[in-house]
Structure formats: C-alpha cells, structure tokens
C-alpha cells in the first residue's frame, strides 16, 4: 500500500491507547507511512500483538507498557523511547475511554476522578512528559476528544467533562507551543465501531445507531487514523488548535 503522507517517513511517534481499537489502527497507519511507533497501554499481550503485526507488515514498532495516569510510568516510557528511537516527532494521546452512561444521581467521586484522570489528566501528562522532545524537533500532537465534548450525548457527565477538557487543553497548548513550532490538534469521533463496541451492541441497536448518522454508517478506526495522520503530517502544516469532528455528519458545530 503506498504511503499517504511521504513526509512522515523516518519520523518517530508515541501512540497511547495503542493496544487496541482506534489507537492500534492509528499506530499501524503511521507504521505503513514509515514512522517508527511506540505503542503504549497497560495490556502487555495486546501491545505485543499490535507490535508484532506491525513488524510482520514491514514496519518498526516498540510495545511499551505504561499507565498514562502515572508520572513514574511516563518517565520510564520516555527513557525507553529515547533509548530505542533517539527522539520523538509525534505524540498521539489516545488513551482513555470509560464513556459508558452513568445517571448523574448515581455518580460518585471515585468514578468521576477515574474518568477525568484517564481521559484528561493522562493526555496532559503524556504531552508534558514529551514536551522537551517535541520542541527539539518541532513536532506534532494529536489528542482524543469525543462527540460527547461537542454535544450532549448518553455518555456519563464525567466523560463529557473530561473530553471537553481535552478540547480546551489542546487549544491552549496549541497557542502556547506555536512559537516553538509544535502543532497541537484534536480529533472528536462519534461511535467508532471496533471489536469491543461490536460485542457490546445488538444488531437492532446497531441499526438504530446507524440511522443517527447522516452518512448512513458507523465510523471505523481507519476513519480516525486517516484524519489523525493528516493532522500529524505536513499536509496540515498551517493548522493548529482545531478539533476535527469525525462523526459521519452527526456533529456540525
Ligand atoms: N470508540 C468510540 O466510539 C470512541 C468515540 C470517541 C472517542 N473515543 C476515544 O478513543 C480512545 C480509544 O477508544 P477505543 O474505542 O479504541 O477504546 P478501547 O478499545 O477501550 O481502547 C482504550 C485504549 O486506551 C488505553 N488506556 C486506557 N486507560 C489507560 C491508561 N490509564 N494508561 C494507558 N493506556 C490506557 C487502553 O490500553 P490497555 O487496555 O492496554 O490498558 C486501550 O489501548 C479513547 O480515548 C476513547 O474515549 C472512542
């Protein structure tokens, strides 16, 4: 398959949430474009599986276990990546999830903090850990919000708040880091169907969900990967601070 973004060849990327779903598809797409990729998550077996399939396809990948909410893990991750790749050009901060609906009357402080930690704080800590490397190479960052940050959805209030925080944080960092040549953009997908999502909904629910998207289908991890590579590559060199809705026409702000 030809590279979509030849300027990416020879660069290095850290992809958190790379062990499955959207992050794994994005890591594979970066590798197909000649990027050496560190795939990051907490599940060693899943990370090894992603790294092996990238290597089998001729790409370069490093499986790295880290809890992105924990600064000591991120410090170890940075040391490992610098040792193996020598620097970092691209940070894809996609770790997160936990968007299942929770009626606010049943919400509790522990779950709220877990979601905000996992979806917002983890993204900030990941980016700040690699900032010296990103500024050294005038790198790019892509963060992960959600349609839950763009309109009210069934997702928990904690998830909407955390992902809205990602939008604001990304915009802030974009302005702060622009003078150093670092671009920061955000993607906001809606209903991306992958293995875990497929197992959690019935055929009937799937058909009902599909009817909510003007483009007449659910999203795929490759839809998000394609938009992310655009934002990570020189194709978007005059774009920073945006949130790109990947939502089949269901979000038109
Ligand atoms: N699927 C959708 O429809 C959709 C829509 C909008 C936004 N999103 C966002 O897209 C991202 C990926 O979602 P997905 O659907 O692909 O979910 P997923 O299949 O559940 O994957 C979540 C990923 O995040 C990683 N992760 C979670 N917490 C982590 C932590 N503390 N430290 C390190 N890694 C962590 C997981 O790694 P391990 O399992 O290895 O720990 C896994 O790789 C999430 O941020 C999610 O909120 C998804």
Overview of this protein structure:
With 253 residues, the protein is an alpha/beta fold. The protein has nine helices and seven strands, in the order E-H-E-H-E-H-E-H-H-E-H-E-H-H-H-E. It has helices at residues 21-32, 44-56, 71-85, 109-129, 131-136, 157-177, 195-200, 203-211, 221-232; strands spanning 12-16, 36-41, 61-65, 90-93, 140-144, 183-189, 243-246. The chain has a seven-stranded parallel β-sheet with strand order 3-2-1-4-5-6-7, with helices on both faces. The longest helix is centred in the middle third of the chain and has 21 residues, at 109-129. It is globular and about 45 Å long. The structure holds NADP nicotinamide-adenine-dinucleotide phosphate. The site of NADP nicotinamide-adenine-dinucleotide phosphate has 30 residues, from helix 1, helix 4 and helix 7.
Considering DSSP H and I runs of 4 or more, what fraction of the residues is helical? Answer: 40-55%
The largest sheet is: 7 strands, parallel
Low-confidence stretches: none
The number of distinct helices, counting runs of at least 4 residues, comes to: 9
Structural class: alpha/beta
What letter string, H or E per element, gives the SSE order?
A: EHEHEHEHHEHEHHHE
Quote the beta fraction.
5-15%
The strand line-up of the biggest sheet is 3-2-1-4-5-6-7
Give every kind of bound small molecule, once each. NADP nicotinamide-adenine-dinucleotide phosphate
* Global shape: globular
Strand elements, count? 7
Average pLDDT over all residues? 97
Distance between the termini: 34 Å
Query: Could you tell me the radius of gyration in angstroms?
Result: 17 Å
């Amino acid at each position: 398959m030809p590279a979509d973004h030849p300027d990416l060849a020879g660069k290095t990327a850290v992809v958190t949430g790379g062990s499955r779903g959207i992050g794994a598809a994005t890591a594979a797409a970066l590798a197909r474009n000649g990027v050496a990729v560190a795939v990051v998550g907490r599940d060693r077996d899943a990370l090894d599986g992603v790294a092996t399939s990238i290597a089998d396809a001729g790409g370069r990948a490093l499986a790295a276990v880290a809890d992105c909410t924990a600064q000591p893990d991120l410090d170890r991750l940075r040391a490992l990546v610098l040792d193996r790749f020598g620097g970092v050009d691209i940070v894809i901060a996609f770790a997160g999830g936990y968007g299942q609906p929770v009626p606010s009357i049943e919400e509790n402080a522990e779950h709220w903090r877990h979601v905000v930690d996992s979806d917002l704080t983890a993204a900030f800590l990941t980016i700040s850990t690699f900032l010296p490397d990103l500024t050294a190479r005038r790198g790019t960052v892509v963060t992960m919000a959600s349609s839950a940050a763009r309109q009210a959805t069934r997702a928990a209030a904690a998830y909407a708040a955390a992902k809205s925080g990602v939008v604001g944080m990304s915009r802030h960092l974009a302005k702060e880091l622009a003078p150093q040549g670092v671009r920061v953009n955000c993607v906001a997908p809606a209903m991306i169907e992958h293995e875990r999502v497929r197992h959690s909904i019935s055929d009937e629910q799937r058909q009902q969900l599909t009817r909510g998207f003007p483009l007449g289908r659910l999203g795929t991890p490759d839809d998000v990967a394609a938009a992310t590579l655009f934002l990570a590559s020189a194709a978007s060199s005059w774009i920073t601070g945006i949130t790109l809705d990947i939502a089949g026409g269901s979000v038109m702000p």
